[in-house]
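Subgroup meeting minutes
Present: P.N., E.W., G.H.
Scribe: E.W.

1. P.N. recapped why we're keeping a running log of single-chain structure predictions: easier to compare across weeks, and new members can see raw inputs and outputs side by side.
2. G.H. added today's entry (389 aa).
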Amino acid sequence: ANRRSGQMLLRWASRLLCAPPRELVFVQVVNRHGTRLPLIHSPLLDKVPLESIEDPHPTASHLVNSDLWLHYHEPEDQLVTTKPKEGALTMQGVREGMALGSWLRDRYVQNCQLLPSTYDPTLVLVRSSRFARTMQTAKAIIRGLYPVQNRQRIHQSVPIFTFTEEAENMFQRTSCSKIAKILEAFRKTPEYLQVFLPIWEQLKPLGVCGAPDRISFLEVHNAISILQNHKLPVPPLLLTMKEQIHHAVTSVLAKDFKPEFLRLSVGRFVNDLLNQMRNKITGTVATKLAIFSAHEVSLAPLQVILGIYKYYPPMGSSMCFELYKEKGWTAKEGNNDAVKHYTVRVLRDREPVALPACGGKVFCPFEEFVGAMSRFAVDNHTYELECQL
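Output recorded in log:
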């Protein structure tokens, strides 16, 4: 009885977060894929029993052809695949995705009652980047959010949408020449040379980094996290350099997130997020929950823009953008001040955060939120022009 009372009290307290004076109307979730296998090959990892990590889906073709209820809106030969084992989502990553989906169900189905208990395709939108690990994470999130028994049909399809490589906007596009120039300039700064070159010199003889660039260091940082997430031994050299590498990735790499870089990395995605909120306010979309299965290079810039960046987003991390309407307010024909009745709350890793970009508020008036974000938003046409400057 005490346990049941405790559960009821917890649920009641959780519902207060979604109750008067505000009504939750729309949520956008941006998550990094779950734990995966390393992308790098190095003698440092030769003695690590990576084969002990289960790979649930060795190839993208297996994933596409064998699953009856997951559907990708791209031909199989256009899916981004990895070499066997490299970068593949692990069972730990699957569990992380399902845990996020289960949390979304607890919060937005059971507590906030934003969504019905049975899956409704008109209310839920799922999009993923074209990498197998993000699509597999999206699949796991769906399984946690709407288990098979909570679908109208046992094999009801839950579509996962993808964009083409050129249209993908959740991270920087490699063909954007301006991005390459910004990163090249950053690699010549004294701070970069003082922090990264000593690390690179220590790792270079061991074949971990092919070149002293941000991607190489990020992957070393990722490899340490992967091993620790699976309780596998971290090679002694990496273990002794862990804090040094963590500081370099968390603090120094974040300094390449200047306004121009942020616009060219996630500016189009920011534009989409804001437009989705505007569409919800004007009543032009029915969607109540949008899930974007993405990468750390999606989350980190968004956190920098909002002033809530603390550490490089780990695998399995997430952000939620909750749009609230003033309780009891109803739009009337000819009423042009609708936005004044809406607020936005941001959750980082499932916890509400005060937004420095919004004067330290937790519930940020929609107009203020747009004002903080819009200087980083860019439409497709402007993006193409700025990339070539």
